[in-house]
Write a structure and sequence with these properties.
The relative contact order is 0.09. By secondary structure, the chain is an alpha/beta fold. The N and C termini lie far apart (65 Å).
């Protein structure tokens, strides 16, 4: 149990005792004073800003047995300050004389892992203030009480807040904690008996003097050794304020601080224990003047950085990385390259110099292009840094590289920081990158009293610049003369597991061959197993069977973990296991979870005129209605041009609703009453969950693991909403756009972390190997061990670094990348194997879906003879996902769709369903680039309709000016650059039709029995020989997949049937290219059969989703995609 939860349980006990003694909790100030007086303390209010408060809001004056608090705010807020100080006294805090400065009444039990909270690893003092805020809230309004009030008495959050005189957000947060987080049983404190250090550990812990690196393999007790070193230093009377302990995660820092505090509470509070990035941020804040930054610069995340650069993109003059339609992804790729450069402490000028050097030495066209690409990244780097300086922001990459450059150039600051610390300790040294090493070197250039611990074979963070290379350099190029030690005894795993990962380690590229470990636990008599199946769906069933087998053998669900190489398949695997009856503890992509999509869909109803979110909301029990009613609502809204959400006040105007639909819409209207598109998303959803529905109550009252996991997800989501950055535009629209970007860029990964309260749930842990680093489990399952999964062949980075950027690496940057990736793949496998304590199961299918052989991972042979191989044939079948079912669709008459529409069915049948069957949706929020493309389309379509509009000089510019005004670009800050792009595109369009006679385009069609596919060419040109050319004109870039598009095939088929010998061309104005479309007879026949099949599937109601991390976040249906309402949908397309 962590310290925060322990404090809350103590506070709840005090509340119960106070109530038993006759004190009234509904008079919070008197209630808090009574508790203070019971302790012999007086309570006095004083003026805010009083010198007695020493800059705080409340404090304990121990000598006078007095609690002082500021006399402003509500009565409840003053009671909260008193309770906060009681917490310091009750918990025996050695820093009780420190005033409470940053009091937050509605503070979450854990910070949301976004923005600055992702970085700030609170020191022990700050952690204690967090602890006291939650102590105070629990004392005044215990979770057990607020849970009873809501679940049993039916009181809403608003009613409880009004009765107590407390802020609404405080009551909401306490209710979320009480209902959505699992209850944690009171701790039974047992005396922990720590194993004595073995000789190698003791030797490492007592090393003094020069730099020292301890190489510590899995389970060898590195944390105990590091803690023993700290305890030894304290025993030698080293001032704890002069000890700096750097880690790589906030969680590790917190655990280390708590571990030290068990024996040395005051010392743990005085030491600086935190991450490299938190330490760097501390330096930036202390020396902000020298860095030309505000005292507390705002942290910019990658999503904000992309938005910032998108506005500048038109003026950057890019060629290789030019994307004139949707530059989001390419900007994100270039930012990744920039952040990687910061890992190496290479600034924008250094990057440009490296690119110039590449260009100067380039011989082949490929080398020249690589150099030019690096130069374009350097240009973007310079622009980005300039924009960031203007915004007075820093990014994650700055937090270490900026302090490094500051200390390396300013000897006084370097000397000042060096003088602060006598001892520097570094945990997980294999995870350091060059910026981290240079930070350490700036603090300890001679290596004296530098002590580090790591394991080269567990170096799995290449994407952020970590490399076992840094372990190799220790004692030579870095911290010359430093000594090394090595731990050899594994205390975690049985001998069979230790022998398995030790055998694999021998041939690993990272580290050396002298890394085999000896098991303290000895043999168990059971070897690790490789279980193979025929095909992939059987693997999940075999996995579920093994989990149940281990459960029957005495290993609870919570004692088992399933580890995967990446996030891609985790959500699907988790859902599959749940359908097989295995409870799983896993959040996955937060914004793609069903319960979060439901909440986001409800928000879209307030911002979308067509209320597309109703198709998802109608699947919720609170608003359930047949799909026919949803269709009736959509038909009604298509005929309106009303303000979003306003239709909920005029439900009588909607005709054709069933009784159930009318009732559900009434409930929806009542739920959304008083909210519109300008409302705060957090307020809307908090009110919905706790005041106007029983959603949170239903979750809170359930013991089902799947339901509890849904609660965890909603808690995490609401915590995320609380800390959203401000900005321009409507709050809900801004949130929805931000969520799309976070998912598309993969910046939602930190939100996949489970709250600490979840750890007690009896469910199988499902996580990536990266996420399992530093953890251990009695039973570990590793599926998907095929040659195409691990080791995985890497794709070249979209923006490779310039040659010479990665310090110590030899050869071309791409070769360096591939070598590093190959090494990391081995390390990932090693980490996965070494997480197991008792049992280790590996899995792999041996066939592809077409029956062809699917090779096993080459890593398996390197585990050698210790691996028992078994072929299994599960008897169960994996049940289909509920949303994979067909839609009950009744079509009146024939189907009639365009080629473009049927092409959408090929790309994603589910999106086709929303767009062309339900006829809802559209584009996501338009960017300036998209508006420019619409303006270009407007102009070229006008030219096709009447070429005489571009008759004289200046006509083209006038048409573009009018189109820009119509599409909202006239006042854009970079309208000149956008006009330049548009003019170039239209000029190319005009040039491409010269020499041909335009003919008015008419629709073409292909019949499939009674069904019909319509093709509408953008333009038709007649050549001098009388033959026709049919063109499809696109404003964007060419995609190679277009040539296989059934819509393109339909275009060719329809044109050639109507005009034998006619040609078809694809025009792409962004690329300024014209491509002839020429498919073989066989390909055309295949496409024609596919078109017929698609029409058959549409009529049969088959609309499965085709998820894609790249395209789904930009889809109009992103927030609603999933299950559809029950019932029969009747449609006509004639």
């Amino acid at each position: 149990m962590d310290a925060v939860e322990l404090a809350r349980q103590i506070a709840a006990d005090l509340h119960r005792q106070a109530v038993a003694n006759g004190h009234d909790p509904w008079r919070p100030y008197e209630f808090a004073i009574a508790e203070a007086q019971r302790r012999g303390l007086d309570v006095e209010p004083t003026a805010a800003g009083s010198v007695m408060l020493d800059g705080g809001r409340a404090t304990v004056v121990a000598a006078d047995c007095l609690i002082l608090h500021e006399n402003i705010g509500t009565v409840f807020e003053q009671a909260f300050l008193v309770a906060h100080e009681i917490g310091h006294i009750e918990l025996g805090d050695d820093v009780a004389d420190e005033p409470a400065r940053d009091v937050d009444l509605a503070r979450a039990a854990e910070p949301s892992p976004v923005g600055v909270d992702r970085v700030v690893d609170y020191g022990r003092r700050q952690r204690r203030e967090v602890q006291m805020d939650l102590f105070a809230r629990e004392f005044l309004l215990p979770r057990a009480l607020v849970r009873k009030l809501h679940l049993e008495d039916g009181q809403t959050a608003t009613a409880i807040a009004a009765r107590l005189g407390a802020p609404f957000d405080l009551v909401v947060q306490q209710l979320f904690d009480a209902l959505l987080l699992p209850e944690i049983a009171p701790a039974v404190e047992a005396d922990s008996v720590e194993r004595p250090l073995n000789p190698l550990q003791a030797s490492a812990a007592t090393h003094r003097g020069g730099a020292f690196l301890l190489e510590a393999g899995p389970g060898t007790g590195k944390t105990q050794t590091l803690t023993a070193r700290v305890e030894g230093l304290l025993a030698e009377d080293v001032d704890p304020r002069r000890i700096l302990l750097l880690t790589f995660s906030n969680k590790a820092a917190g655990e280390m601080a708590e571990r030290i505090a068990r024996k040395h509470k005051a010392a743990a509070a005085a030491m600086w224990i935190g991450t490299f990035h938190a330490f760097g941020l501390d330096i930036i804040r202390r020396f902000h003047i020298e860095l030309d930054l505000p005292k507390d610069p705002r942290m910019m995340d990658r999503t904000e950085a992309v938005e910032l650069l998108e506005t500048e993109f038109p003026r950057l003059g890019l060629n290789h990385y030019r994307n004139l339609y949707d530059p989001t992804q390419i900007i994100a790729d270039m930012l990744a390259a920039i952040f990687r450069a910061k890992d190496e402490v290479v600034d924008e000028a250094g990057y440009a110099e490296l690119a110039e050097a590449m260009l100067g030495s380039a011989v082949t066209p490929e080398e020249r292009e690589a150099a030019e690409r690096a130069g374009e990244v350097a240009r973007v780097y310079a622009a980005y840094e300039g924009l960031k300086r203007q915004a007075h922001c820093v990014d994650f990459g700055d937090l270490v590289s900026m302090p490094v450059r500051l200390m390396e150039r300013d000897s006084e600051i370097r000397a000042h920081l060096q003088a602060q610390y006598d001892h520097v300790l570094v945990d997980e040294y294999q995870d350091v990158n060059r910026s981290s090493v240079r930070l350490i070197a700036a603090l300890r250039s001679d290596g004296r009293n530098l002590w580090a611990v790591g394991d080269a074979k567990q170096s799995i963070y290449r994407f952020r610049g970590a490399s076992s290379f840094n372990m190799t350099r220790f004692g030579t190029s870095d911290f010359a003369g430093g000594a090394r030690g090595r731990l050899k005894r594994n205390y975690r795993s049985v001998d069979e597991v230790v022998q398995a990962f030790s055998a694999f380690a021998i041939r690993m590229k990272a580290g050396d061959q002298d890394s085999g470990l000896e098991s303290e636990r000895g043999q168990s008599g059971v070897s690790p197993e490789l279980r193979t199946v025929d095909q992939s769906p059987q693997q999940t069933v075999a996995l579920a069977d093994a989990i149940e087998e281990m459960r029957r053998a005495g290993h609870a669900y919570r004692d088992q973990a399933v580890l995967c190489t990446g996030n891609e398949k985790l959500s699907e695997l988790g859902q599959d296991l749940e359908r097989l009856g295995v409870p799983v503890l896993f959040l996955g992509s937060l914004f793609e979870r069903p319960e979060i999509k439901e909440l986001l869909s409800l928000l879209t109803i307030l911002t979308d005129r067509r209320a597309m979110g109703m198709v998802r909301a109608a699947c919720m029990s609170e608003f359930a209605m047949p799909i026919s009613d949803v269709d009736a609502i959509f038909s009604h809204l298509r005929a309106l041009d009303a303000t979003p959400g306003a239709w909920l006040g005029e439900l009588g105007a909607i005709t054709g609703l069933s009784e159930a639909g009318s009732a559900a819409l009434g409930a929806m209207a009542a739920t959304m009453r008083g909210f519109d598109q300008s409302a705060s998303p957090w307020t809307v959803l908090a009110t919905l969950l706790l005041d106007r529905t029983r959603i949170a109550a239903r979750i809170g009252g359930s013991s089902d693991i799947a339901e509890r996991t849904r609660g965890l997800a909603i808690w995490q989501f609401m915590n995320f909403l609380r800390v959203q950055p401000g900005g321009q535009g409507l709050p809900i629209v801004r949130l929805l756009d931000r969520v799309r970007r976070l998912v598309r860029l993969g910046d939602d990964r930190d939100l996949r972390q489970l709250p600490a309260a979840a750890q007690g749930l009896d469910a199988v842990r499902l996580m990536t190997i990266h996420g399992a680093k530093g953890l251990e489990f009695p039973v570990v399952h590793v599926p998907g061990l095929n040659g195409d999964t691990i080791p995985r062949t890497p794709q070249a980075p979209p923006c490779p670094p310039p040659d010479g950027m990665v310090e110590g690496a030899e050869g071309r940057a791409l070769d360096v990348f591939r070598a590093g990736h190959a090494e990391e793949q081995e390390c990932l496998f090693y980490v996965a194997l070494s997480r197991a304590r008792d049992r280790l199961f590996l899995y792999a299918p041996t066939q592809k879906s077409n029956g062809h052989n699917r090779p096993l991972s080459s890593f398996l042979d390197r585990v050698e003879s210790g691996l028992v191989r078994t072929k299994v044939s599960p008897t169960r079948i994996l049940p289909p996902a509920p949303e994979a079912g067909d839609v009950t669709l009744v079509i009146d008459g024939a189907l009639r769709f365009t080629g473009a529409q049927i092409a959408l069915y090929e790309r994603c049948p589910r999106r086709f369903f929303y767009t062309h069957i339900l006829q809802v949706g559209g584009r996501r929020t338009a960017t300036a680039f998209m508006q420019m493309h619409e303006a270009v389309r407007t102009v070229f379509q006008a030219v096709i309709a009447d070429a005489s509009i571009i008759g004289g000089e200046g006509d083209l510019e006038g048409q573009i000016v009018n189109a820009f005004a119509a599409h909202g670009l006239a006042d854009h800050g970079y309208v000149t650059e956008y006009k330049g792009f548009a003019t170039s595109m239209i000029q190319y369009f005009l040039a491409a039709r010269e020499g041909h006679t335009p003919e008015a385009p008419t629709a073409l069609s292909i019949a499939f029995g009674a069904e019909e596919i319509i093709v509408r060419p953008d333009e038709v040109l007649v050549r001098s020989d009388g033959s026709r050319t049919f063109r499809r004109v696109q404003t964007g870039h060419f995609r190679t997949s277009e040539m296989d598009d059934v819509g393109v095939a339909a275009f060719l088929l329809a044109a050639q049937r109507a005009f034998p010998g006619a040609s078809v061309e694809l025009v792409h104005l962004s690329d300024q290219t014209v491509r002839s479309l020429d498919l073989t007879t066989k390909k055309l026949q295949n496409r024609q059969e596919k078109l017929a099949l698609f029409l058959e599937r549409i009529r049969g109601g088959k609309f499965p989703a085709d998820p894609s991390a790249r395209t789904c976040p930009g889809c109009p249906a992103f927030f609603v995609c999933g299950p559809t309402p029950a019932g029969t949908l009747k449609k006509s397309f004639s």
